[in-house]
Amino acid sequence: MRIRTVIVEDHDDIGRLVADRIAELIRQRNEAGRPTVLGLATGSTPIGVYRELIRRHTEEGLSFARVVTFNLDEYYPMDPKSIHSYHRFMWENLFSAIDIDPANVHIPRGDIPREAIAAEARAYEDAIRAAGGIDIQILGIGKTGHIGFNEPGSGIDSRTRVVTLDLVTRKDAAADFFGEENVPREAITMGIATILEAREILILATGEHKADIVHRAVEGEVDHEVPATFLQRHPNTTFYVDRAAAALLTPVATPWLVDEVQWTDSLAIRAVTWLAHRCGKAVLKLTQRDYAEYRLSSLPAHYGSVGALNGMVFNALGAKIRGRSKLPKGKRIICFSPHPDDDVISMGGILHKLVENGNEIIVAYMTSGNIAVFDHDVRRYVDFLHRMAREGYIAPAPAAGLIAKVTEFLAHKEPGQVDIPEVQDLKRMIRESEAVSGIEVLGLTASAARFLNLPFYRTGTVRKDPIGPADVAIVRALLEQVQPHLIFVAGDLSDPHGTHRMCKEAIDRAIEELYGKSARDENQSSGCPQRPEIWLYRGAWQEWPVTEATWLVPLSQEELRLKIQAIFKHQSQKDTAPFPGQDEREFWQRVEARNKGTAAELDRLGLAEYFAMEAYVVE
Ligand code: F6R
């Protein structure tokens, strides 16, 4: 690894660790009566750091009165009052909650005429120098490898300037701007040289969607096509990553390549499947020579022989396969679905099997998913209402008022403007009725659907509130009422807006409140209410690798077809989903590829040949 890297278990640990370092410096400087100069970033990653700094200010009295800040960048053009402005972001997420002197805050301005940019940019560099240079610079990393908005191609000598945003960056920002066409094409950013002059750099990344670029930045050659690699030339940079973002780093992905390892069965299974891929062979066909060639001879030695090792791995993989006869029967089950459609996308196959096995199933939709409904869909339903009223099927009076209000609002809506409550409600109801028709395809009825509509999500914008007691209480009440034997939870870590992660947090907290911290078995013997078993599924973006999955659930061609049919019922997300991420394929296409892909993977490893498969991890 070419940049010092700290891998933490949990996303929230990064906020605490980075805030620790910043707070320590501020305290030292405050005691010495000297200023602290911070370089700050926006985006989703540093929000946890800002939350921690605010906490230290309010609870521990950390003073920011002597702190001077310089932000990395701002879109161009951009009104500082716009919801998309980094000025507004910084005030909302940090500055308004601490005692910083507004005169000490510096953020590039996006509202100046083009001819003034060059002079402003020089003045920005001068101001950094006049402040004594940046002590600690916080950075995020974009999928392109950008730091600040220094996109691929940026030179190591670049300074503060206007830049054209990469298409990938604009796609990533599309959700915040309610459409790629609304994302500005340019930005003003500190240059690479400006950033590298900071005395200390803390770069942060979380989530599986960052795993590729973290790997490239930390282990790849320095390359101006990946600007973050320039950090390898900086003497004091630390990369803070969570497990998900670190997944492809060599010490995490293939630790046996970098060091002596203590072989455990689970590590052996990973190493043998890795070797099988490398050699293009089935597990049972790997030979002593294959192990020797990849410097893995210690592994068969640990298991006594190649045959014993290969057999252990083959059997362990085979034991993960659970057809219908090995799945629960007659149990109470809750499937927690962060948005309406995660249920069918991620676990449509097993849901159908569980229905057939006579389980009592509740599908609990945690958020309404209403921000992901296009306005044109609302117009269509309003037109339908209008027709019903005109033909006398519903009373014209209340319908007419709603129709007029919604039509008028949508006619003048600005891109990204928060919807009026009536439109938010209509969008919620559109998704609710889609969810019901989705589960009906799988054999459930409308009474199986619960719409929790958790408060943290009800901001009307892409940005969400943190999980609070009200969210936890709603989840807890459902658990108390149903007393499930088994619950399904979205365990993926990289949905673009973090909603899946937040939903999991609400469930984890409710479970802890109800059953305590202890493991399932301890609970049962201590007479506490029975803690449900938890099966984690992945959302629309990734799948569990077969080595990590606890259970692999085979699907026939007919079952996969049924699952896709259920996904089709989510019409507001079909054809073009408002938040598709970088993947151009529709959700059902990703599901088909991913479920068939898992089955093909087992086939390649020399196990039975199934049509498709879903994967689950038991927590
Ligand atoms: C933000 C910035 C960008 C972001 C990067 C990652 O001021 O300069 O480089 O840090 O795009 O964004 P998130 O954290 O939203 O993934």
* CATH architectural category of the largest domain: 3-Layer(aba) Sandwich
User: What Rg is obtained from the alpha carbons, in whole angstroms?
Assistant: 26 Å
Q: What is the total domain count?
A: 3
The named CATH superfamily of the largest domain: LmbE-like
CATH topology of the largest domain: Rossmann fold
DSSP summary: helix tally: 21
**Alpha carbon gap, first and last residue:** 31 Å
Bound molecules: fructose -6-phosphate
- Indicate the mean pLDDT: 93
- The count of β-strands is 17
Instruction: Catalogue the unreliable spans.
Output: none
What fraction of the residues are assigned to beta strands by DSSP?
A: 5-15%
Q: From the helix content, strand content and strand pairing, which structural class follows?
A: alpha/beta
**Main sheet strand line-up:** 1-10-9-6-2-3-5
Q: Describe the biggest sheet?
A: 7 strands, parallel
